[in-house]
Amino acid sequence: MAKTNPGRFFEDYSVGQVLHHAVPRTITDGERALYHALYPARHALYSSDEFARNCGLPQSPIDDLAAFHVVFGKTVPDISLNAVANLGYAEGRWLQPVYPGDTLRSESEVIGLKQNSNGKTGVVWVRTRGLNQRDEVVIEYVRWVMVRKSDFDAPAPETLVPELKKSLDVGDLLVPQGLDFSNYDFVQSGEAHRWDAYNTGEMIDHVDGVTVEEAEHMLATRLWQNTAKVHFDLTFRPEGRLIYGGHVISMARALSFNGLANAQMIVGLNGGAHANPYFAGDTIKVWSEVLDKAETGVSGVGALRLRLVATKGGEPFELRNEDGKYLPNVLLDLDYWALMPI
Amino acid sequence: MAKTNPGRFFEDYSVGQVLHHAVPRTITDGERALYHALYPARHALYSSDEFARNCGLPQSPIDDLAAFHVVFGKTVPDISLNAVANLGYAEGRWLQPVYPGDTLRSESEVIGLKQNSNGKTGVVWVRTRGLNQRDEVVIEYVRWVMVRKSDFDAPAPETLVPELKKSLDVGDLLVPQGLDFSNYDFVQSGEAHRWDAYNTGEMIDHVDGVTVEEAEHMLATRLWQNTAKVHFDLTFRPEGRLIYGGHVISMARALSFNGLANAQMIVGLNGGAHANPYFAGDTIKVWSEVLDKAETGVSGVGALRLRLVATKGGEPFELRNEDGKYLPNVLLDLDYWALMPI
Amino acid sequence: MAKTNPGRFFEDYSVGQVLHHAVPRTITDGERALYHALYPARHALYSSDEFARNCGLPQSPIDDLAAFHVVFGKTVPDISLNAVANLGYAEGRWLQPVYPGDTLRSESEVIGLKQNSNGKTGVVWVRTRGLNQRDEVVIEYVRWVMVRKSDFDAPAPETLVPELKKSLDVGDLLVPQGLDFSNYDFVQSGEAHRWDAYNTGEMIDHVDGVTVEEAEHMLATRLWQNTAKVHFDLTFRPEGRLIYGGHVISMARALSFNGLANAQMIVGLNGGAHANPYFAGDTIKVWSEVLDKAETGVSGVGALRLRLVATKGGEPFELRNEDGKYLPNVLLDLDYWALMPI
């Protein structure tokens, strides 16, 4: 009975190692429709082929976060099956849109290792790339996780902590080829606010909330072929199935439409923390803060650096207590770049 | 924090005003499949491309009610965000089938206004049109809602109550171009009953029932990009998330297959009342009454005017108590025209 | 009120009778995506068009079990509406892959009848065929059910118990035209184990488990247009909605990925028993036993005969108690043939 994958342990990783993750996936209009059923997603570029063509794209792409989830889901059996904690993200970039019919696969390179002083766990840094059927990288990001050792006697690897940018510069961001907001329809997009209208430091309460059900987060997580037990098996976690962190990211992003309807494309992920676990029955509410803004160099296309915070039940606009710890109601603290018509 | 849409209040509407609703939506095979997962829909014309071609259409259209929900969902942020009640529908017409790949948008014209005597609310009548990517109207209907005033001192508008037909005449109905029932396959459609077999006044108990779950109605309502809080946010409505009225319409229509399998296309909506709110855990059962029948002028295509009643748990075939009020178990009272082979 | 289908009773069947089942169904990328949301399906051939092309197929087919459910669902109103029990399956064969765009219909021939000694029920054997839009048989299987009599005085038919194979021979199996595993990618498929690596008698514990929700099994069952009341109507079964047996088959097959990732295509169904009913809230876990292995005659393509057992909560590797009865935690005992690269 040894044909199943036990997952990798800390001692199984070495710097420079490249892991080719199974299983490739063709994404279609079906995944696109499901994304709209699972999340209150209304950004027009991802809702209408006509709107997308009017913005210079061949058709409406798959939601940037759906593409991210597909790429991420593949890494779970190789990276986080024996993970104790998902510690962070950095240097995430969307390098080109994913369209229905594209087939994605993922690979990760180990770029850092650090055994913990307890000798029982260690931190693994990987740079993951999602590639399409033409071997073009469509997404890349760094993620680090704490992983158990299986053999406590295995020698500690040489410590290598990669240097990662706190935030991508606007020059690191890729504006999709052909993107053109000169005919952008602010009536059909749902809001009149251009890039000009947003100021660094501005806060936006997105008002809407969604109470999450077990069936929904499991449908979503399976759709991305992320099959980690903790999300599905109540006998494994009798205190409650943990909801996949990506579910709250997508829910939060979709809920941010109301106030950020023109923050159309996600092109950079600077960092993110799943501040507290969340469970079915919790109600997700969302606020945003404008962290920075920049011109992209492409005429008419601005970039907004946004903090996206999901809370349980809509707590006040604070993240941390006086000790610097996340408040118990904070679920997600995400830092990303989006493109917006100037 | 003022970038979110507060919705319109009664004093914000004026007769003749045209509202262009966001967000356009491309409908695909994905939405089609989801419709079949969400509702026990079995009408053959909407299930099989082969069956549809055999009836003169290029392929199987998107369910008429799915198209309606897409058009309707867009109007919510502009029409019913501050609505106290959805009062009625009239003069609904399906003007051409919607196919996978079509992109729909919606616009509404204010056709009536009447401030209530309390000075705090008023009734707004709108005629909504759904248009496709070729700017062809695919659906139109009148809807009226009671909306709150924000500024009680705002002057009352001149009262205009539009004259609306109690029921569409058969001459108002459009038979889709090319529709031809001469090769209609009564074995594959599931029932042998033609238009001839139905008599005005006839009642049909559709037998089947479905107990509704929270996850299902939220998936459905989101799919139509209807994001009204009352359907999703339990902290906003601790007594229970209200199920979108369109969910019971689609459930009821699908459940009416058993006895009306050949009532293939919905072409007219004469009126409809959401008689009582309903909630997850309720079991929907359905009965129909034949209100009228007419020939359409297209050879072989008859029209049946049907009352479709959804009840909680399958109450007897009555609608109202002695005071004329809907019985507490009645959820939906819908009056529509469908096309059927003669 | 007699327009609804009361279903067939035992006395309504006669040997040789052919039943043409409604409603035909076009299967698309939408159904494909939903299958991946409903089940943790990861077999690469059904996940990636690129992987499928690399195996000689034109694109990724619809999951074999999804095709089975579509064919099966159509038979319910004609075969099992008044069934007391679903007794067994035999001689199931997948004769060609189903692709997005294909339209399926079903027909069944009555091949056996046996009235029970109580005079109130009888057993009906049917051979069901699923056909595509080119009238090619894509699936066939034998199923037998115990059906109520409506008229106890109706004479018993002549008893005919068909001879059915306990198991299909490898020669009965059809390898899809063009299937070629010579470029099979064992990295992208998720496991390195070839046909060679499996031995008759070997047991595999698939480790993963899923706790099932009401919304999920109803979405799935409706998607296949199986509308049997017991699955949907809590007022009809206040003790709990029975989950469609096919839901546990698909869940079990998907969960068997971990350890059988290269058992790509299901081509034969030798038999199957739904050992105990199951309900939302139950957690499905799965184990497999290799019953037999054979070469198919097609170069590089081996066949594995597998027993797939789903249990509630992951009971030990036993099926039956000392009286030969299924243990109470056993949900499914399925015997099938799958194709695997040699």
Automatic annotation (TrEMBL), chains A, B, C:
Domain of life: Bacteria
Gene3D superfamilies linked: Hotdog Thioesterase
One GO MF term: lyase activity
Matching PANTHER family: BETA-METHYLMALYL-COA DEHYDRATASE, MONOAMINE OXIDASE-RELATED
Protein name per its UniProtKB record: L-erythro-3-methylmalyl-CoA dehydratase
Organism: Ruegeria halocynthiae
